[in-house]
Amino acid sequence: MSTIRQQLASPLQLVVLASAGIILLPLGYVTAQALSADPVVWGRLWATRIPELLFNTISLAASVAVITLVLGVSTAWLITRVEFPGRRLWEGAMVLPLAMPTYVLAYVYSFLLGFGGPVEHLWQLVAGPQARIFSPHSYLGATLVMALDTFPFVYLLSRSALLSMNVSFEEVARASGVSRLSTLWRVTLPLMRPSIAAGVALVILYVVSDFGAVSLLRYQTLTYAVFQQMTGRSDNTAASILSILLVGLALIFLITERWFRQRSRFYQTTGHYRAPQRHQYGWLGTVAVTGYLGLIVGAAFALPASLLVQWSLSPEAQATLDSRFFGFVWNSGILAASAATGGVLIGLPLAYLASRRPTMLNLGCLQAAYAGYVLPGPVAALAVLVLFTKLAPVFYGSVLILIVAYVIHFLPAGLQSLEPALQHISPNLEEVARTLGLGMRDTWRRVTLPLVRNGFVVAWVLMFLQTMKELPATLLLRPVGFDTLAIRVWMEASEEYYQLAAPSALLIVLLSLPALALLVSKDWRAA
Amino acid sequence: MSFVCSLPTLRRTILSGLLLLFAAGLVAPFFVPSALAADQLTIYSGRGERLIKPVLDAFTANTGIQIELLSSGTTELVNRLKAEGDRTSADLLITNDAGSLELARTAGLLRPLNMREVERAIPAQFRASDNAWVGLSGRFWILVYNRTMVKPDQVRSLLDLADPKWKDKIAIPNSGSEYLQAGVSVIRATYGDEKTRQFLQGLKTNADNQVYQKSSQIVDAVAKGQVALGIVNHYYVYRHLAAQPGAPIAVVMPDQQEGGMGAIMNVAGVGVIKSTKHLDSAKLLVEFLVAQAGQKLFADLDKEYPLHQDVKADPALVERKSFRAALVPLSKLAELREPTLTLIEQVGLR
Prior knowledge:
A: mainly alpha, about 75% helix, globular, B: alpha/beta, D-Maltodextrin-Binding Protein, domain 2
């Protein structure tokens, strides 16, 4: 038995090594290109762009972190600790913003808050005709959009921390005469700290690698600058220098997130665990809570979504719903399906070997596959581009190069659900089935497959959706005739043709909703 | 919040649907048509899709030749052509800037053309010496101003925009745009590096975060009064006025004063890719674009200055004969580009 397994393992081992290589090589090439760059280029970038870009990126990340912290923790606390009519409805509604790609929210807000836009008109009714509001194309605008789009990460992690927390700690505090507010501050929040930190680190990782919102809001971050360097210059040296800075920055937050996530597992949930008592609110409290939650969900989802519907129904938008539009839908569909299938096929042996034969090598290969987390879209595109022009220029400009970029970029999302699925199957289960008289095929069909199936489905759907929403890598690498829905949204929105961008944007949001349900029940970290 | 479906049949349907999609994803990449039909042209275009697609559609309607259009940034597409080499599926390159075409020509990407139609229609200063690229339509880098905020005699020259009195009142394109690079190249060639640097420094300070990706957004911002002045290619202003005749905007043709350098001109143009397998169709398209009918489309739809002498520009535009253009030849834009980019980067323009 063991010899058979070893024989099976060695070709598989090669596959795994090759996959890890394919994933790491592009990053290696970019790093090499950046490090071998003329010191003059480094010097010039340090003297001109880098300080501004680093400052912009970090200050955006910091302000978004603070706002998501407040929004995420407060909503999670209200949902888990307060009873009010419609609570279960709000519990689900709080994750809806995750269905809005950042570029969609950004373009809706550049209309709403734009010069002479609806919000400004309202404000002028109050403050006089000359009053101005802040421009959405600024630090504040980018902060608002990114915070509204990402606070559900903190909400979800805080919520599960609050649900799994042992309430006896809080009860002891209350019984010893500590006030309710003080208990919250001195007991509950400290217990939630690892989860909150993990959520915030995730938010920061997301903000740092976002391209869609910052490009539409013209806010200069590292990720946006990499894209601009790639599209505006004839060589990629400066782009790769900015890329490795960005990768370094992302790596810091990835490690932070993982470290806190590990710590967040050490809750005492066994023993005398009891579900927390929900505090019943009266009508005044209900109105206040509903108003607060409604404001957040309204700003982050309901209002943008209803604008998209309204724009999609306009005659200008209806006129774009021709065969060309369905071509874009088709392109989005097959690209996403190919990337998802590719991701599952590459991720499977990596996760399988790491769980069955957890040697240093196999675990290392699996960790390498998580590199996508620190490769923002434009960097992934640059990396794949550099690799292919050096090693296999034949594929340049083909669909393959784009799919490779997608797989590298989104494999972590898939692995998040492939890994636990494979850990479920232990060889014993199969062996038991065999000793009880099942054949090889029946064992596979009735034991193994049902065990891993859900994990596969979730992994595939997640990668499908991520790919469908993906913007920068698609912009940079798409072959002729491969415009996708995301590309159309961005192209129309960047010229402020709001109506024309709406049908594609709405379709992306609608397609994301069912997957969001899946995500929330299984593995939402991947969004 | 659980997604587990209780109906086994529905679940099975969903699963088999997903399985089908999984398989589709597996085979899909191999079904992408790599060799296109004979009567089909692939065009890499660095012009806004809105500006070029109607013209190409007219060509398809005339000839039945289908066109695959990849719209993207000009520099990005030239980079891409370099990387793809002979394997590219592109048959033609259309750009918004002569400098980029000249760079593509010197990189050996374009095919010289020997076509009498071209030589007859387009004056020699608007095409490469070997006709590897051919200018199609002229555009001028002009000042657009809001009539309620600025009087026309307040600005004469592009260089006036660096004046501190315009702080936070101007909008400019981002430094990745090829016509900004071309414009700065012309200013450098005329006034030298030091004066250009001061100009860019002032421009950067005055524009602050009013740096736009698209010229149409700049015109919009001026029309709404968000800024008083902007630098754009002229046709964006006239396209805006054609759609909204009441907009309070007007054009200053800059640098016409005594001793001024003249307005900065650039052309949008086309080149046939060296490795094209559809040379006859590609030539047919070039012929269509330089002929009177094609030139009229650029004039009427896009509000550009046609390069064909017998085709009139839109009457709303400033009469071409009434102003001077800067004297830097288009083909020089290519060699000026690299030092210009260095200067732009040193100043730290976005």
